[in-house]
TrEMBL record:
Family assignment from sequence similarity: Belongs to the HAD-like hydrolase superfamily. CbbY/CbbZ/Gph/YieH family.
UniProt keyword annotation of Phosphoprotein present: yes
A GO term, aspect molecular function: beta-phosphoglucomutase activity
EC number: 5.4.2.6
SUPFAM superfamilies on file: HAD-like
Listed cofactors: Mg(2+)
Keywords assigned by UniProt, alphabetized: Carbohydrate metabolism, Isomerase, Magnesium, Metal-binding, Phosphoprotein
First-level EC class: isomerase
One Pfam family from the record: Hydrolase
Keyword Metal-binding: yes
Catalytic activity: beta-D-glucose 1-phosphate = beta-D-glucose 6-phosphate
The protein's name in its UniProt record: Beta-phosphoglucomutase
Length: 247
């Protein structure tokens, strides 16, 4: 293993953004909760059962493209909505309408609260750059570029495969490995020589399905065992742990 805690065959690092590089996973969870709770309360009235920002978020929406997250969670409640159009207004009860409401809330919260990067992740990405490893961000977020810029870390990465790129290239989102594979191709590195860094269960599955050389689970939500079960080769609480330093 190298000083980066990776097999010495690894030549590239593919980082998820929310929850791995930036402290925005809680913002997304809060926006999903506000979106789904308002919809479910209108629909179910007294029988309303709220969205759980931990268990429902982790199991049904974390790491997925926005529309897939809507479909996944609603299916868990036995609900099916019309797809609607991608530009549906946020008050329309369609898959895209709910997704657009969630996105508006995320942008409002980011504008209000700002974006913080995890210090340990920044140090790790800097160490990977110093070691000559290629670096990419792989995120389902359509706001990935803006978030990286707001966090001041966009210059650390050579390639970005996000929700915008995925839509343009018609790449299915996590748990499919296609976005990670596209990032590896863009860096000129085969999957077997690339490491995936993820905090979401869907990301673990994508790493395993893509045949990547190493999959690192980042345990931000107290689900270390689940990360291993879904494909992590190793699990850390912070990327600084891989450097052998305090996070």
């Amino acid at each position: 293993m190298t000083k980066l805690g990776l097999p010495d065959t690894i030549r590239a690092c593919l980082f998820d953004m929310d929850g791995v590089l930036t402290q925005t996973a809680t913002v997304h969870a809060a926006a999903w909760k506000e979106t789904f709770d308002a919809f479910l309360h209108r629909r179910d009235g007294a029988a309303f059962r709220p969205f759980d920002a931990v268990t429902d978020y982790d199991e049904y929406v974390d790491g997925m493209p926005r529309a897939d997250g809507v479909r996944s969670f609603l299916a868990s409640r036995g609900i099916r909505l019309p797809e609607g159009d991608e530009d549906d207004p946020p008050d329309r009860d369609t898959v895209h309408g709910l997704g657009n409401r969630k996105n508006r809330l995320v942008l409002e919260k980011i504008k209000e609260l700002g974006v913080q990067a995890y210090a340990g992740s920044v140090r790790y990405a800097e160490a990977a750059r110093a070691a000559g490893l290629r670096r990419a961000v792989v995120s389902s977020s359509a706001n990935c570029h803006e978030v990286l810029v707001a966090a001041g870390i966009d210059a650390l990465f050579e390639v970005r495969v996000d929700g915008v790129v995925a839509a343009e290239q018609r790449l299915p989102g996590k748990p499919h490995p296609d976005t990670f594979l596209a990032a590896a191709r863009a860096l000129g590195v085969p999957a077997a020589e690339a490491a995936v860094f993820e905090d979401a269960l869907a990301g673990m599955e994508a790493g395993r399905a893509g045949g990547f050389g190493f999959v690192v689970g980042v345990n931000r939500a107290g689900q270390a065992d689940a990360l291993r079960e879904h494909g992590a080769d190793t699990v850390v609480d912070d990327l600084a742990d891989l450097l052998g330093e305090a996070s």
